[in-house]
Write a structure and sequence with these properties.
The protein is of the alpha+beta class. The protein contains three helices and four strands. The strands form two sheets. Strands 1-2 form a two-stranded antiparallel sheet. Strands 3-4 form a two-stranded antiparallel ribbon. The longest helix has 19 residues. The radius of gyration is 18 Å and the shape is elongated.
Amino acid sequence: MSVIQLFKRQLTIARVYGIPVQIDYRWFAVVALSVWLIASNLQNHAIQIGNVRLPPHAQATRWRLG
């Protein structure tokens, strides 16, 4: 299997009225990168939600929020 064929592969997650719903494997890398960036940002900076400012979180909390 070549590298190009690997990136064209998709994972079927459901079928809606016979139409396959598929996601590309590359989205797993995007989600992992997003979670890592959010978790590392929560380590260094406080969160502000409306008028409430929350302090930096513990490591386990950061990964759950990310």
